[in-house]
Each structure stands twice: as C-alpha cells, then as structure tokens.
Amino acid sequence: MSKSHRLIDSDSHILEPPDLFEKYLEPKLRKIMWDNALKLYPIQPE
Asked: What is the DSSP string of the chain?
C-alpha cells in the first residue's frame, strides 16, 4: 500500500536581500534585532 507523494517547498524561493535590516529597519529596532541575534548565534573568534 505504498503511494508516492509529490511535495513542493513553497518558501525555498524567498531570500531576503543582505541589506534588508540595515536599509529598512529603524536604528533602535536594528540594535535590538542584532543584540538578540548575537545571543542566539554568538560569533566565535577565529
């Protein structure tokens, strides 16, 4: 009773521009966003 199903990932074609937050986010919110991002993904020294 095996059936094959076709799946489509509808979000895979969406890529944010690299300057999205710097260009469109207010400076106050930009700082909050980066502070939270660094807590989740800390930058490791090389």
From this structure: ---------TTTT----TTHHHHHS-HHHHHHHHHHHHHHSPPPP-
- What are the Cα distances from residue 19, in Å, to 12, 27, 31, 34? 19, 13, 14, 13
CB 14 within 8 A of CB 5: no
Amino acid present at 5: H
pLDDT at 35 (0 to 100): 86
Q: What's the pTM?
A: 0.43
